[in-house]
Structures are given as structure tokens and as C-alpha cells.
Amino acid sequence: MKAFTYIQQGKFGFTEKGKPTIIDEHDAIVRVTLSSICTSDLHIKHGSVSRAVPGITVGHEMVGIVEKVGERVSHVKPGDRVTVNVETFCGECFYCKHGYVNNCTSPHGGWALGCRIDGGQTEYVRVPYATTGLNRIPDSVSDEQALFVGDILATGFWATRISEITEEDTVLIIGAGPTGVCCLLCTLLKNPRNIIVCEKSKDRREFIQKHYPQVMVVEPEDCEAFVKQHSLHGGADVVMEVAGGPDTFQLAWKCARPNAIVTIVAMYDKPQILPLPDMYGKNLIFKTGGVDGCDCGEILDLIAQGKIDTTPLITHRFPLSRIEEAYDVFENRRDGVIKVAIFPD
Ligand SMILES: [Zn+2]
Ligand SMILES: [Zn+2]
């Protein structure tokens, strides 16, 4: 089968691989029916994910149909339509039992698919710990509606949960890329008093204004003053930093009111400075990424109820055989792209 592969730093390309087989009793084989490209794939391509193993099939956002399951997989069976979680986790270690599945201590725990083991930009994928890593998609939910459940939407849901948002809050979300929009969708469910989205790209600000007119948008240069003006206590009650730009961490804590929660969802290319003397007395609470992706069942229920819809994020569609074009569009942000969907040929 055709597998889009991390060949070496700076280079992805197709290789021919055999169809995966069950190698552990907790595995499942899933036929990929729709996948996507994530910014993390680009991080692998550019060599900034040191754990990524050359030769692996990339891709960790996908949905599919279960083809085969190992003896100890409960929960899903062949023929089920499923979301695939970006994280594989045993469900039994200290971290898993506390819901901190990103830090699962199993050798396969955490982000393995499309990073350390073969992922989903191909025809079939082997999913370890399938009982915890796969969720059945309700019949009323389409593949496109479910596509982001296991990765960026799980991230938005988790970030919103740990940010402890209340209906009194002014919430600032920095960054309106795909994950920022997922944070926004989950924040909307919490019904806060105000939501402000800060984004430097005009296209993306317009996307937010078009789809979520109840949300305020602002450019980074005006953000601090705008947030002060539109919040009750001199700054945002909750800040989610999802941009990962050169100055966005500084912007995040500066826009927060004293005692606010500042959730860092972004993955940075470089170390950030935590200027403790400047923020002394502000008594901020920082929470940091990455996602504990263990709420996928609940997220799928919310999609089925019509409460979350990520389909506007899918701006482009390509067959697997043209995935190189899809990468070019996504990486270079051509043609107003937000996310691409890759379907089988
Ligand atoms: Zn991702
Ligand atoms: Zn575990």
C-alpha cells in the first residue's frame, strides 16, 4: 500500500509498504477513510520533533473502519466506524488512571502514531491499545464531522476543561489557527460573558467574524488595550495561548488579570522567558500542554447533538495520491486554507 513517509529531515514522500498486521493482543487494524495534515506533521518534517523516527508513515489525525482486532480489544469490533486518538495509552498506569494519558508510562504511551510508529496518511494503520485509542462514531456523525476528534478537537476540549471557564469570565484566545478555533468551539459551550480572539492574519480574523459573529476579534498590536477595555477586572479571567509565535507567550500573561488562569496550548520552536520579577504579585496560574486526549467519547456525543461542528475548518480536500499538493497548500497557507481532508483514491 501507498504510505506517506518521513524519509529524512526536510523530506516526506511516498513509499510502498505492506498492509499492517496485529502484533499485540491490544492492537487493531483500521482502514483509513479520511485523514488530515497537522502542524505537528510539519514540525516532524522540519526536524523539530526529536522523537520522530525516519521511515515511519506520518499522519495522526484520522478516522476509519475497524478491519481486525487483537484478542484483548473490547469496546470496538470489525466494521465499526471509529475515530483514532493521536495518543496511545494503556489505561492502567498511574497517569492513565488520573486522566493524564499524555504521560502514560507504557513504551507505546503518548504520541506514537505518525511519530514513533506508522501513522495514518496511508490506507491502513495499526493502532496499539485500541480499546482506549478508538471511539465508535455515532451513525448520525459523518467522517468529516469526526475527523478532528482525536487530535485538535481533543486539544481544544482539554484546554477548555483545564482553564476552568465560568459564565462570568472574559476569555482571551490567542491564535485562530485550527487548534485555536477548536479551543473557541469548546469555550462557546461554557457560555462565558465575553470571548476575544486575537489573530494576526486578516483571513483568519475574517473566518472567525463570519462563522462566530458573537466573538470579538482583535489584532495582536491592539490586544492588550482591547482586552482591558472589554473585561471587568483589568484583564482576561482566562487566557488560552494557542499561537506559539515569538511574542505570544508575553502577550498571554500581560493580558491576564491578577489570579487568572493562563493555559499554554501552543508548542513553541524556541524556549520562552518567564519574567517572574515583572509578573510578581499578579499571582497567575499557568497550565501547560500537551493534550490528555481521553474525552473523545464525550466530544463525539456533543457533535451528534449538534453542539460542536468543526466542518467549516475543512477548506480543502485531496485524494491520498495528491497529498504532496495538500502539504504544499497547508504548509504555505495558500488559498485561505485552514485544514485539508485526505480521502482514499
Ligand atoms: Zn496534531
Ligand atoms: Zn498508561
Automatic annotation (TrEMBL):
Under InterPro entries, the record lists: ADH-like_N, ADH_Zn_CS, GroES-like_sf, NAD(P)-bd_dom_sf
Alcohol dehydrogenase-like N-terminal domain sequence ranges: 25-131
Q: What is this protein called?
A: GroES-like protein
Superkingdom of the organism of origin: Bacteria
- An MF annotation (GO) of this entry: zinc ion binding
Cofactor(s) this protein cannot do without = Zn(2+)
* Similarity annotation: Belongs to the zinc-containing alcohol dehydrogenase family.
Q: Which UniProt keywords apply?
A: Metal-binding, Oxidoreductase, Zinc
